[in-house]
Amino acid sequence: MPIGSSTLSVRPDTARRTGNGKPRRARAERFAPYILVAPAVLIIVALRLYPLVRGVNFSFTGDGVLNGQLVGLDNYMTLFDDPLFRQAMRNVALLVLLLPVAVAIPGLLATFIYLRVPGHRLYRVVYFFPAVLSPVIVGAIFNLLLAYGGPFNTLLGAIGLGPVDWLGDRRVAMFTVVGVHVWATFGMALVVFLAGFATLNSSLLDAARVDGASLAQEIWHVIIPGLARTIQFVFVTTMIGMLTAMFGLLFVMTNGGPEGSTYLPEYYIWIQQGQMNRPALASAASAVLFVVMLVVGLLQISVLRRSGRED
Amino acid sequence: MSGVRAGRWLIAVPMAILALATIYPLVFTTNVAMKTRHEYILDRFSPAGALRWENVASAWGNAGMAGYFVNSLIVVSCAVALLLLFGSMAGFALSKLRFRGSRLLFLGILAALFIPFQVIMVPLARTMADAGLIDTYPGLVLAYVAQFLPFTIFLMTSFYAGIPDEIIDAARIDGNTLYGVYRRIMLPMGTPALLSVGILNTLFCWNDVLISLVMMPSAENRTLMVGVTALRGQYSDDIPTFAAGVLIAALPVLLIYLFFQRQIADGITAGSTKG
């Protein structure tokens, strides 16, 4: 950034305004930092921190006729007895299992782009493009493509496969939705990986190549240790994305179905709050989701930190 | 050496196929939007006979996308303007001014970054209802500002931290108040970061569906993305018009992507390298 030139351009503008009532200004200035942060603090406290506390409180009160009365852990009991919520938690476990794949795909692609495969400049631009689309748009488009009599099955039929009921088969639907989510978001992680590569010491790679390392060895011994921090960041953000950014897809593509097989906690919360009018139960589900996110985040950080230290 | 060459081309083939798979769904949708219903039913893949804009016009007019578009435009522009204003003010104070509790405050804002909307959605809706802000423009604007402010502050703070103190000291010696420094130094010098975080926030708000669903329950207040989901039910037997509606909703985002790719990438990676 041209810092030198902007210093100069600032001067003539400000040089004219000199010397005016210093003592009074000093007093007003003491409060300036607080005034500058005041709007942000007010909004964050009132509309994020206060609701968080209020929500935890809600989760210990009842719904309907018990509105506002303390019911202890009843909501949490109901929650874990509800097959839909249990399915949502099973799907969270599935997401955790699929997480390494969702991280490895952009990681590998970024590696190839970094190693300058033919056309690498183009791929960088093209791969990122779905990441700017709303999940609603992505879901709507894939609804058309993946319909039972739709184009994707026609294509598969042409090479003698399928048809697969991508969104109507309860054993397949969740994988379909996750697949579409990965399609829509891998570009985001790719960009982060590429930024990580920019900080990688390329002489290490050159040395490995001189020593005759294969691509797999390069990745395992040079790239992964060198990018430990980036990989950690991508793991955490990808998991957060899977837990909080799939609502649009679920809403448009499956509505949680078939037979509740594509429920995730966020969808469950929305249904209980918006459709079933059970805000207290929804609040309990929110609290569980929050704990899940904390645990997943902390676990990943500690695991990755330990593996980083051994290297 | 030639073995390595060949290996690279071998990798390039699946990567090219993936690139096609990335682009094709939107090409397909655009093509469908240009077809008549009859053409679509006969053959989904064939190129549309002509560039027909009837479907787009009918989605825009009859299906009500125009109204949703205006709703989105109003809400998103207000939210982004407030985000940039409050974010840069707080970012300046947190990066350059030492005051009591500033460290604690920064940590609190970082923590707020990790509260997803889903976790606070029920009580937030109730708080908004208490304040009479549910189903109003200001209510949705505030919800967006609250959702994306921690991220905005985080980015602005780390950007401003890179501006040398000497520039601020010089402006102070020239007689500027802190507000003057904010207006004459921090705002203009922060332009690249403001542009980047502004574009990202525009995308986040424009693409959102859940916050809008919760905060704007009535049909005439729908934002564009909620409008698209409603369109799906209305036009389930008229796929070309539905595709045209999808296209209308995606178009602004595609334009932003074409013009501001670099800024988007900068904003996303800023968190990964500085966090």
TrEMBL record, chain B:
The keyword Membrane applies. The chain crosses the membrane at residues 9-27, 68-92, 104-125, 137-163, 193-219, 239-260. It is found in: Cell membrane. It is a multi-pass membrane protein. It comes from the Bacteria. Keywords: Cell membrane, Membrane, Transmembrane, Transmembrane helix, Transport. CDD domains: TM_PBP2. GO terms for cellular component: plasma membrane. GO terms for biological process: transmembrane transport. The keyword rRNA processing does not apply. Residues 69-260 form the ABC transmembrane type-1 domain. InterPro entries: MetI-like, MetI-like_sf. PROSITE patterns: ABC_TM1. Its main location: membrane. It holds the Pfam family BPD_transp_1. Belongs to the binding-protein-dependent transport system permease family. This is Carbohydrate ABC transporter permease. It comes from Phytoactinopolyspora halotolerans. The lineage of its organism: Bacteria, Bacillati, Actinomycetota, Actinomycetes, Jiangellales.
